[in-house]
């Protein structure tokens, strides 16, 4: 059955909620890191490239009865990138890209959550990458399966907004648009 919640201010990585097994309030306060995933795609020349981040810490405090009080945060270890080859992974750590010796992590902190109905949310927050902080709005869908909540979200970032891939890479070799997808899995509390 579909349940609509009139007011939601929560996570910060855009969460859209799916189907809930019952109409009572549900809380999600822990993220199962092993079952969760962060991936990205971009274009390089004429090829589509897929990659993941293997090490991240996500925190969540989401009550479907009070989404306005929800909080979400994410810290990603940038050296845990897998962009498909060891050469690419090494290159992305250099100063022109992530400059991970100086900026080892990317962080997200939620500031607000908007309920869109049908278990869909927009999580608004601050994303910091390479020392640059930008406001982002992430659409999210929350799907409840048995006693597990799955928060699926996707957003597109412009790497130039965070000064990633400057210099010789600022042209069209690598697309400016980077599509980020995430799946955060959290047990009901």
From TrEMBL:
The keyword GTP-binding is assigned to this record: no
What are the UniProt keywords, alphabetically? Signal
Key word S-adenosyl-L-methionine present in the record? no
User: Lipid/polyisoprenoid-binding YceI-like domain: which residues?
Assistant: 27-187
Q: Which residues form the signal peptide?
A: 1-25
Q: Name one Pfam family in it.
A: YceI
Q: What is this protein called?
A: Polyisoprenoid-binding protein
The organism of origin for this protein: Pseudomonas brassicacearum
